[in-house]
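> call design_seq(struct)
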């Protein structure tokens, strides 16, 4: 139970600290739509999504108004499309992508995820076809998001898939060159992808999930920053153990709010409630930044020495608070550090405090990975693949989820600005050290075996 003082603090979070329900994501299982004829499959997909999501936006708005807590994004995640379109050609996969995009627009959701393939141990026919179609699909659609899982602790790293995704990212960037390669901003490459992520671009509905489920994502970097600022103003001598406890208690409150809203939305829709994903996901707005938390903790900027330790403490405290608040915490749940989507982090990259190499080190202790990182457009596919392989290795060895959203911006170089718009923000393009060096390691391909600690039964 929350005390009256804690209830008042939550009201303050709503009024002045950017607390919101970042997303309600409706997961829809489309496997019962499978059909050997593409037109019939697309018709079934359209019908099922319409049926289950026709009231999603209105219910989210109504519940948000009731509690005074805005639901910022309403999204849909579907079963991996590589399974649905397993026998189809690339043009037929594109037909599915356009069906998803058109239906998402019809029901007024912001994004629809699940144009996905799981290839950590090898390719099925549908996987290859889907990956081949990703560049054109993401360039031609507005709302469709894609994800490809290329590694896991149990399977190791599929280096053939990593290399293929390097080429896929390059092509997606070229196909959206007039928009600074924004198609790549809708594509995540994962190790150990969870089945219940509500956040885009990685969201999809896993095979072990219900037929339909409501997952919610709560974000509160501004809330955490203000809590730290108030506490240190009142008690300047607080040590890091006390600050960690403060972050944990703040995460608890935010998680309780998220579960309250999520369960009511699920009840009104008559759909099962799934998980709360408590991730400190920033926006390009001032005061809604994960990077600013580092400054409240006493660092000059994210990226300077001490940043990895600070992020480890932050991520752990958020998870502990969320786990205590709910028995249904899932997704990623921790701290995101997407460069272009966080005004403060983007500025740290511009000023040179944050490099890709330091960012990679920090991803060993955060929730995702190299997220929304703009790199020079002439970075080779092999170098992009090598960067991804390094990030996948961090996830596989540490038994955690890692991912990349790398954007090689066509025609632009390190130090130039890339503009993606809206929630995707803007950023200075980060240099890739030794990015043009020959990479004979990555072209060996094959599969890097799973680590020994994967043998847990």
């Amino acid at each position: 139970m929350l005390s009256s003082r804690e209830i008042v603090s939550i009201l303050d979070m709503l009024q002045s600290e950017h607390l919101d329900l970042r997303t309600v994501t409706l997961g829809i299982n489309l496997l019962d739509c499978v059909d050997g004829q593409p037109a019939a499959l697309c018709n079934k997909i359209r019908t099922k999504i319409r049926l289950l999501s026709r009231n999603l936006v209105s219910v989210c708005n109504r519940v948000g108004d009731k509690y005074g807590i805005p639901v910022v994004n309403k999204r849909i995640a579907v079963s991996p499309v590589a399974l649905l379109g397993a026998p189809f050609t690339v043009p037929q996969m594109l037909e599915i992508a356009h069906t998803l995009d058109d239906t998402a627009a019809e029901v007024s959701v912001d994004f629809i995820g699940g144009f996905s393939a799981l290839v950590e141990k090898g390719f099925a026919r549908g996987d290859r076809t889907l990956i081949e179609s990703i560049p054109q699909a993401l360039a031609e659609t507005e709302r469709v998001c894609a994800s490809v899982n290329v590694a896991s602790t149990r399977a190791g790293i599929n280096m053939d898939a990593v290399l293929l995704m390097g080429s896929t990212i390059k092509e997606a960037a070229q196909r959206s060159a007039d928009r600074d390669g924004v198609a790549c901003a809708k594509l995540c490459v994962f190790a150990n992808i969870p089945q219940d992520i509500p956040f885009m671009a990685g969201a999809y509905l896993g095979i072990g999930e219900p037929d339909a489920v409501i997952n919610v994502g709560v974000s509160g970097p501004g809330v955490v920053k203000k809590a730290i600022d108030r506490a240190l103003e009142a008690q300047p001598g607080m040590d890091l153990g006390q600050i960690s406890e403060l972050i944990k208690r703040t995460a608890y409150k935010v998680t309780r709010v998220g579960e309250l809203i999520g369960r009511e939305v699920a009840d009104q829709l008559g759909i099962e409630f799934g998980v709360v994903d408590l991730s400190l996901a920033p926006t390009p707005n001032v005061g809604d930044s994960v990077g600013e938390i580092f400054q409240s903790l006493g660092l000059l900027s994210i990226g300077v020495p001490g940043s990895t330790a600070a992020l480890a403490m932050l991520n752990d405290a958020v998870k502990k608070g969320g786990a205590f608040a709910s028995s249904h915490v899932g997704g990623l749940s921790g701290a995101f550090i997407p460069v272009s989507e966080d005004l403060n982090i983007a500025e740290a990259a511009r000023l040179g405090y944050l490099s890709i190499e330091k960012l990679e080190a920090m991803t060993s202790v955060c929730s995702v990975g190299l997220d929304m990182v703009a790199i020079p457009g002439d970075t080779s596919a092999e170098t992009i693949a090598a960067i991804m392989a390094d990030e996948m290795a961090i996830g596989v060895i540490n038994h955690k989820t890692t991912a990349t959203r790398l954007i090689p911006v066509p025609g632009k170089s390190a130090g130039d600005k890339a503009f993606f718009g809206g929630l995707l923000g803007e950023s200075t393009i980060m240099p890739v050290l030794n990015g043009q060096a020959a990479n004979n390691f990555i072209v060996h391909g094959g599969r890097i075996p799973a680590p020994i600690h994967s043998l847990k039964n």
